[in-house]
């Protein structure tokens, strides 16, 4: 067991299996008595294990990113029982998981622990995570208050402000970001917010909102204010043109950039390849791909993914596989998105499962949405056996299923008439505190409350679980 955890040459998620089995063996007493929970399993679950690998800890936390209680139990247990000293990186990973489930009080407790630990001082990433999780929960005021608290950590600076603005734009609170930067709320910051970087963030924020007219208005406003547009500005606006259904305008911008003598980087080329591939055809997109290589701009995994996606969308599966093989020859490792492109386009369960096995063999760990995508697809086709094969692989690789995975499995079981098994998994996910869909087949449905039973909200509904 120890060799499994400390072995360096194994795939990262293979290292997690011994720890995963310890956690999987029970579903009670998860928090907060981590030590007693593990003692109940074995007097020495990991004997002679004082030096747990940092990467193993990080990967194990990633494995339990959809189960914050188990992740937090492991986080505390590995510190107390394995004498592991958490670093800023592992603290930040745990903070991200807690924030995902809105456990902000616990998050601040962790930050206080970090502050008292010389090996885990809070850094800009720590509070970038807090900004991201607060704003994702639409707690904008709390995120801004956190920024003002950063003087306590000597981190109230331009980097933190940019992280705050970027998080606001990423999670569709660009209106608040715009007010914070340009409407008189920035006087006490002590640094300039009228630079290109901030404007690029706001432009990208309008892009995330899908407000195309506002994007165009802000693009023109940058010219009026004399803000210098850089390569990143053009890359964002080309992407806006593509997503708004005007790829030919992105191509026009590309030609404008070439006339100005701007040297495109790989990010800009990725956008251009997609724009030309959509507007003029996949062969022209592949032509730009060859051009970038000839000009000495090395393609990255996103470049190859863009080309593969264009080929698959045009039914050229063999050529897409050829590009995948080319990636491997050029030492550019495919990522999970590469395989998602294929999974979305292939139409044979056996071929998909073969590629899924290749993905795992190549050391690419499936994400939870990978499992959900495949189970939903097989379920729609009426193939139950592949659904269970994916579910089993998910458990073997140490991933804890979330509500979407459970619902995909339950829907597939109901479709095949296996109601008893579907009900079992429905009850299991409810016991874990996950949200189940109301299903008539299982005797669950939405019930309208009687108006007189709720004076404050007479038209509210509640989910009544009516198990027959």
TrEMBL record:
Belongs to the PPR family. P subfamily. PROSITE patterns: PPR. Pfam families: PPR (PF01535), PPR_2 (PF13041), PPR_3 (PF13812). NCBIfam families: PPR. Signal peptide: none annotated. It comes from Hibiscus trionum. One of its GO terms (molecular function) is mRNA binding. PPR repeats lie at residues 195-229, 230-264, 265-299, 300-334, 402-436. The keyword Repeat applies. This is Pentatricopeptide repeat-containing protein. The keyword Disulfide bond does not apply.
């Amino acid at each position: 067991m120890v060799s499994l955890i400390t072995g360096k040459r194994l795939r990262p998620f293979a290292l997690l299996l011994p720890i995963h089995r310890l956690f999987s063996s029970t579903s009670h007493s998860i928090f907060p008595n981590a030590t007693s929970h593990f003692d109940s399993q074995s007097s020495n679950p990991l004997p002679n294990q004082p030096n747990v690998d940092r990467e193993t800890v990080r990967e194990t936390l990633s494995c339990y990113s959809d189960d914050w209680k188990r992740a937090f139990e492991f986080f505390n247990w590995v510190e107390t029982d394995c004498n592991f000293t958490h670093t800023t990186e592992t603290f930040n990973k745990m903070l991200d998981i807690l924030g995902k489930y809105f456990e902000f009080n616990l998050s601040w407790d962790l930050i206080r622990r970090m502050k008292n630990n010389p090996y885990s001082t809070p850094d800009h990433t720590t509070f970038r995570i807090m900004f991201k999780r607060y704003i994702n929960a639409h707690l904008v005021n709390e995120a801004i208050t956190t920024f003002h608290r950063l003087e306590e950590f000597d981190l109230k600076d331009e980097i933190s402000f940019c992280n705050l603005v970027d998080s606001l734009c990423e999670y569709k609170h660009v209106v608040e970001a715009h007010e914070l930067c340009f409407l008189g709320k920035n006087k006490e910051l002590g640094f300039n917010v009228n630079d290109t970087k901030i404007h690029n963030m706001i432009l990208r924020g309008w892009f995330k909102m899908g407000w195309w007219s506002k994007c165009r208005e802000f693009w023109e406003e940058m010219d009026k204010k004399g803000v210098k547009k850089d390569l990143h500005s053009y890359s964002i606006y080309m992407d806006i043109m593509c997503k708004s259904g005007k790829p030919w305008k992105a191509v026009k911008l590309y030609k404008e950039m070439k006339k100005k003598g701007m040297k495109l980087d790989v990010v800009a080329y990725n956008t251009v390849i997609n724009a030309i591939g959509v507007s003029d055809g996949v062969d022209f997109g592949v032509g730009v791909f060859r051009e970038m290589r000839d000009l000495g701009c090395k393609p990255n995994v996103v470049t190859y993914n863009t080309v593969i996606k264009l080929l698959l969308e045009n039914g050229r599966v063999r050529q897409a596989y050829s590009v995948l093989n080319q990636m491997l020859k050029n030492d550019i490792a495919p990522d999970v998105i590469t395989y998602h492109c294929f999974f979305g386009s292939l139409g044979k369960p056996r071929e998909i499962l073969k590629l899924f096995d290749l993905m795992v063999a190549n050391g690419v760990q499936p994400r939870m949405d990978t499992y959900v995508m495949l189970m939903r697809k097989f379920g729609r086709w009426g193939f139950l056996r592949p659904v269970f094969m994916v579910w089993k692989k998910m458990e073997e690789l140490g991933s804890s299923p979330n509500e979407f995975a459970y619902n995909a499995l339950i829907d597939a079981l109901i479709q095949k008439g296996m109601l008893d098994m579907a009900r079992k998994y429905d009850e299991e996910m409810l016991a874990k505190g996950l949200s189940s869909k109301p299903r008539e087949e299982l005797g669950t449905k939405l019930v309208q409350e009687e108006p007189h039973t709720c004076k404050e909200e007479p038209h509210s509904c509640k989910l009544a679980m009516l198990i027959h």
